[in-house]
Design brief:
The complex is a heterodimer of chains A (about 210) and B (about 140). Chain A has 5 helices and 11 strands. Chain A is globular and about 45 Å long. Chain A has an 8-stranded antiparallel β-sheet with strand order 2-1-11-10-8-7-6-5. In chain A, strands 3-4-9 form a 3-stranded antiparallel β-sheet. Chain A has about 210 residues and is of the alpha+beta class. Chain A has helices at about 5-45, 70-75, 105-110, 160-165, 175-180; strands at about 50-55, 65-70, 85, 90, 115-120, 125-135, 135-145, 150-155, 170-175, 185-195, 195-205. Chain A starts with a helix and ends in a 6-residue tail after the last strand. Chain A has 2 domains: about 1-45; about 50-205, no CATH class. Chain B has about 140 residues and is of the alpha+beta class. Chain B has one domain. Chain B is about 45% helix and about 30% strand. Chain B has helices at about 1-20, 50-55, 60-70, 75-85, 130-140, and strands at about 25-35, 40-45, 90-95, 100-105, 110-115, 120-125. Chain B is globular, with a radius of gyration of 19 Å. The chains are: A alpha+beta (about 210), B alpha+beta (about 140). The interface between A and B is large, with 46 and 44 residues. β2 of chain A pairs antiparallel with β3 (about 90-95) of chain B, so a sheet runs across the interface.
């Protein structure tokens, strides 16, 4: 037993050495992942665009919903959804619902027109305003009919509107619209406010909600 | 005795190598805690690399069944996971209703899902690479339309 001890010690040392040599394999794999993640983070800071949705309810429970989605992810994932009217990143419009209005021609007419207010309705129930300002299509609706006044503001870059209608006559190209949106600067797209809820949809390059 | 020592060395080396390979993709972590009386407490750590390995052993017919039932969902999940890997850590979804809190985020290459409500906490951590392996295998085994 005494004569075997040095040999056993040698072997034990060898095993320990092997363990020490091999253990970085696991760590290396993790580090590689981390490096990839880190470089992705830098890339994100450089150019990724994030779509944010925030819903805050001010009722008793104080519900909050926050969604942050990279636009590129949405662009790649949308074509994978084939459900109901949505296929290959395009959504079919039911002609009956647009009352035979050629939306594509309408969008083109707005694009070629000068800045200005196109629709202004002031009624007892609603105030509606549709305008084009600095290459943005702006829709503003104030619902006065309910006890809780609701205000909706939509601001869409004209390039996004064009991209949306760039598919066939009866369909909207969501992927093209997202692609066009990714080229835009930080912008607030939708804002809905009433006495109980605030909804905000905006675009920026941050991967976290404010 | 020398033979035994060599065998031990071989076995030890194999164990270390297998351990390093098994854990190289990280671990899948599931924690469920029910705070009610007699509630269950599940804490599970599974080497992520074991999942794709196990999927090779599972009979194909089970895959066909899973793929058929997830025909619409699997390609979408695969596309999401594949893309998520390219982005930095992010809080993807956060829902808070005062009593219940749900958070889905990516953290260090893993998908993290946390759900907290009175009486129950659920935490799930899955490496994105594992999810990609699983969804791609389900996709590959999907019955042709």
């Amino acid at each position: 037993m005494t004569s075997l001890t040095p040999s056993f010690c040698k072997k034990a040392a060898l095993i320990t050495a092997a363990a020490v040599v091999l253990s970085p394999i696991g760590a290396w794999a993790q580090t590689t992942t981390d490096k990839t993640s880190s470089s992705a983070a830098t890339a994100s800071a450089k150019g990724d665009r994030w779509l944010h949705v925030r819903v805050i309810s001010t009722d008793g429970k104080g519900e909050t919903v926050r969604v942050n989605v990279p636009l590129e992810l949405a662009e790649k994932v949308l074509p994978a959804i084939n459900h109901d009217r949505l296929h290959d990143g395009k959504v079919k419009i039911d002609c009956a619902h647009v009352n035979d209005v050629d939306l594509r021609a309408l969008a083109e007419a707005i694009r070629n027109s000068k800045d200005g207010e196109y629709v202004t309705v002031q009624g007892n129930d609603n105030d509606v305003r549709v305008a084009k300002q600095s290459n943005y299509l702006i829709v503003h609706v104030l619902d006065k009919s309910k006890s809780k006044k609701q205000q909706v503001e939509i601001k869409v870059p004209m390039k996004v509107v064009d991209a949306l209608f760039s598919a066939g006559k009866d369909e909207l190209d969501l992927v093209a619209a997202l692609h066009a949106l990714s080229a835009q600067g930080d912008t607030e797209l939708v804002s809905v406010k009433d006495q109980e809820n605030t909804v905000r949809v905006w675009l920026d390059s941050k991967n976290v909600t404010e | 005795m020398l033979f035994l020592a060599k065998a031990a060395l071989g076995l030890g080396g194999t164990i270390v190598l297998a351990g390093a390979y098994t854990f190289h993709e990280g671990v899948i972590r599931v924690d469920v805690d029910e705070s009610r009386e007699g509630g269950s407490h599940v804490h599970m750590w599974v080497p992520a690399a074991a999942v794709p390995m196990a999927m090779h052993i599972i009979p194909k017919r089970h895959f066909m069944y899973a793929s058929e039932h997830g025909r619409d969902f699997v390609p979408l999940a695969h596309a999401i996971v594949k893309e998520l890997k390219k982005f930095p850590d992010a809080e993807l979804i956060e829902v808070d209703d005062g009593t219940q809190h749900v958070r889905i985020r990516t953290h260090e290459g893993k998908l993290q899902i946390d759900e907290t409500e009175p009486g129950q906490d659920v935490h799930l951590l899955i490496p994105l690479s594992t999810l990609e392996d699983v969804t791609s295998q389900l996709e590959a085994n999907a019955p042709s339309a």
